Amino acid sequence: MEFHKPPQIKIKGNQNIEWERWKKSFNNYMEASDLAKANDKRKIAILLNLLSEDGQEVMDNFAFTSTDDAGKFDKVMEKFEEFCVPQKNLTVESFNFFAVHQRENEPFESFLMELQTKAASCELKMNHLNHF
Predict the structure, then answer these.
(1) Superkingdom of this entry's organism (predicted)?
(2) Which pTM was predicted?
């Protein structure tokens, strides 16, 4: 059975949101195609194949604590996570959240989704928003 592969992603530049979405798609693909059970070497090869040409270049520059870590899928994913998801400036993220206003003729659902996205990015705990 053939499964939809996640699209290639450019991993250079600021791609925090794209990385998170892509990683979910990648994990779903690995599970659906029964590749999650593959050995680490094969999983790393699949990951690099789907990360575009930049993926190998970026991985070549990772500093692993041991040479064995470069062959461990979980360690490689941790390094890509560190590379793709820089530390957040919560002050700026909070400012962006409080600057959100509903635009004229914007559907409430769209406005609420934007609020939830901004709230997540500044790590606000707003569980009551999930009830809408």
Answers:
(1) Eukaryota
(2) 0.62
